[in-house]
Amino acid sequence: MAASPPSGPGEPAPPPPPLQYSLLLQHLVGDKRQPRVWDPATLGGIPCPPKSDEQKMVERVMESCPFKAALACVGGFVLGGAFGIFTAGIDTNVGFDPKDPYRTPTAKEVLKDMGQRGISYAKNFAIVGAMFSCTECVVESYRGKSDWKNSVISGCITGGAIGFRAGLKAGVIGCGGFAAFSAAVDYYLR
Q: Does pTM top 0.70 for this prediction?
């Protein structure tokens, strides 16, 4: 590009080159945009030191699929056990002997039935929680996104697997039901 000849004292200055908005947009939102380093202290936030190697390792462990599945399994076991004991407490047939309907069950028999129902519910909830959490983590890792579709897909897989034991129709209904429930919960929580 040739330089324009210098203007004399009586000549008007040459006009500036026209502004090219496409070049400006590339620097603002396009490929040539430079990422900014956000420092919380400059925005009035609380400054935090960089994370140590131990903190990063703990974060990696806590975000791993096996840890999430184990946590859901333990949480499901506790929640299922509590739910089983609660339902056994309001059930009038706990400790009831069908051979002798007029006999009143003892406290030991009632507590034994409550414990058995609590353990049964706890195991079922633990299995469902681990299956759902593990499939959601695998789907999220495969898709590379964390959105509502992951819970719907994993709900369909989990519900279908549970229902498929009773047949194909039950598997399809389980898939749809569990996916709808997962979508509703995800919509409510997010």
A: no
